[in-house]
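Anyone opening a protein record will find just a pair of labelled lines. The record below illustrates this layout.
***
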Amino acid sequence: MMKSMGIVGGGQMGSGIAQVAAQAGMDVIVVENSPQRLTRATTTVAKNLDRLVKKGKLSEEAKAEIMGRIRTTTDLDALAAAPLVVEAISERKELKVQLFESLCAICGEDTLLATNTSSLSVTELAAVTKRPDRFIGLHFMNPVPMMQLVEVIRGLATSDETFAAACGLVEQLGKTVVCSQDYPGFLVNRILIPMINEACYALMEGVGSVEDIDKAMTLGCNHPLGPLALADLIGLDIVEAILKVLHEGTGDQKYRPCPLLRRYVAAGFLGRKSGRGFHQYT
C-alpha cells in the first residue's frame, strides 16, 4: 500500500487525482509551473469537498484533514523521494517527453512513473526514460472524483511488478481497473471519441440540431450526457487531439477529425473551459 505520491499538473485531471488520493489517506505533492495554477488546483479540490460537506457525506473535520494531506509547490525537485509520480499535464507529446526526462534526473531509481495520457503511446513515453520497466499508463476518467474507472496501460517494457503496483494503487483509491493494451486511444477513447466525432459530422451535415443530437443519445440510448455536451466537458481541443492520434496511429480515415470540430477549435470554442463550445456556458 502506497502512503504518498506526486502529481505533476494541477488542472482538472491533476486536482481530481490529488483529491481522491488525499481522500484515500495518502500524502500528495502537486507540482505546477505557477502559484496561480496551484491556487486554482486547491480551490477546485476545496469546492468539491464543500459539496460533499453540504450533502452530509463529509464532515468539516474530515475536509480539513484531506486538504492538509495535499501539499503544493512549483519545485519539481520536491518529488525526489516520491514512490510514485503521476503526470497529468497537457496532452502534448513533446511536453510529456521533456517532463519525464527531467523526472528521471530527479527521482530515485525505485520511483514508479505514470502518465495520465488519454491516447499517446505509453511505450514511446517510457522509452525516453531510463526505467521503462517502471513506467505505466494510468488513465483516470473525467471528472476523477466521480468516475469509477481507471484504465491501466502497460508499455512494452512494463514489468509485472509495476503493473501489480499500479493496479493495487487504483484499488487503494477506491477505483476499478480495466486493462488495455498500448494501442491508440486505448479502450475508452477508441470507442468514445469516434462516437463524438460522428455526432459532429451529423451536426455539420444538418442531420439534427445540437439539442436533438444530444437528446437522441440521452433518451434513446440512456447515456447520461449527449455526445456534444460531453465533448464540451472534455474540451474540443482534447477531442481533436485524440482523434489525430487515432488517425495517425491507425492510418484509418474513419478517425479523421470532423472539419466542423476543427473549425470550432480554431475559433477558440473549446467547450466549458472557454464558455462556448457546441453549447453556450456562463
In short: The radius of gyration is 19 Å. The longest strand covers residues 135-140. The chain is about 50% helix and 15% strand.
